[in-house]
Design brief:
Elements: H1 12-15, H2 21-34, E1 41-45, H3 51-58, E2 62-67, H4 70-79, E3 86-89, E4 101-106, H5 117-130, E5 131-142, H6 144-149, E6 154-159, E7 162-171, E8 176-186, E9 192-202, H7 206-216, E10 219-225, E11 238-244
Parallel strand pairs: 1-2, 1-4, 2-3, 4-5
Antiparallel strand pairs: 5-11, 6-7, 7-8, 8-9, 10-11
Helix pairs in contact: 2-3, 5-7
Length: about 250
């Protein structure tokens, strides 16, 4: 298995064609519009191939995309050509910006990919420093229930020239769900090539995340259901956090 998002980068958009990025962008904008400070500059952590970054840039936001994978960023940079997006290849826990932003967002459970709590604490501290006074931090996570439920599950994604198999395995001791990925791609000569990757996501308790945010200095911390403006229901698989930096 190779490092995460090397083999996958060039095929990621095909494998995530079912993700409604417009709906994600709409939801982020609902928060921006309700926030006490006008949001013009936005940083996306874990931007991947830049699908959401591109949408927000087209809606008029000054975007910065941050990701650890140079392969994913190469795709994102090409996708966002001409939109004035700045891309940075950085670890979230070492986030360093040229200037402070009005909002920082992280979507599609990118926060779960930070599998060491100490690193996530540093990430939240870096985000706090990166925000302008009165700025907004908005992110989603898969809940422990969702990750525990992935144990032993197999997921398939395919089209005519691509076949991808994910297998989930949850470790209660480590609080980590690992995904082994096998990717089969039909080449131009009709033959098939095979690649593999391994991904891990950490099962953070909601109370734990609230604590990390508070320690970093955030206030007005709220938790929402999946793309709703209401508190999450019992048994929620995904939740959103919104936290503010004091003026």
């Amino acid at each position: 298995m190779t490092d995460a998002y090397t083999v996958l980068a060039r095929r990621y958009d095909r494998l995530t064609a079912d993700v409604d990025y417009e709906k994600w962008a709409d939801y982020l904008e609902r928060h921006f519009q309700r926030w006490k400070r006008p949001v013009r500059s936005v940083v996306e952590l874990g931007c991947g191939t830049g699908s959401l970054t591109q949408l927000l840039a087209r809606r008029g936001y000054q975007m910065t995309g941050v990701d650890l994978s140079p392969d994913m960023l190469a795709v994102a940079d090409q996708k966002c050509e001409g939109l004035g997006v700045l891309f940075l290849c950085q670890d979230m826990s070492r986030l360093t910006l040229l200037e402070r932003a009005d909002a920082v967002v992280s979507c599609l459970d990118s926060v779960n990919y930070v599998t060491r709590p100490a690193a996530l604490k540093r990430t939240f501290q870096r985000v706090y420093q990166a925000l302008a006074p009165g700025g907004l931090f908005l992110f989603d996570v898969k809940t422990p229930l969702a990750l525990e439920g992935a144990d032993g599950q197999t997921y398939l994604d395919e089209d005519d020239d691509l076949f991808c198999v994910w297998r989930g395995e949850y470790s209660p001791r480590r609080r980590v769900c690992g995904y082994g990925l096998d990717l089969f791609v039909r080449e131009e000569d009709g033959s098939w090539s095979r690649g593999g990757e391994y991904h891990e996501e950490y099962a953070y308790a909601l109370e734990e995340l609230e604590g990390f945010l508070g320690e970093a200095g955030f206030r007005h911390i709220k938790v929402y259901g999946d793309k709703t403006m209401r508190p999450p229901r019992e048994g929620a698989q995904r939740v959103f956090f919104a936290a503010g930096k004091e003026e």
